[in-house]
Amino acid sequence: MTDASDRTDAVQGIEGVLLANRDRIVRFLKVRGADDMAEDLFQDLWMRLTERGVGPIAEPLAYVMRAANNLMLDRYRSARQSALRDAAWSDVTIAEGPSAEATLISREQLALVEQAIAATGERPARIFRRFRVDGIQQRDIAAEIGVSLSTVEADLRKVYAVIARTRRSFDG
Question: Any idea where the RNA polymerase sigma-70 region domain is (predicted)?
Answer without folding.
Answer: 21-80
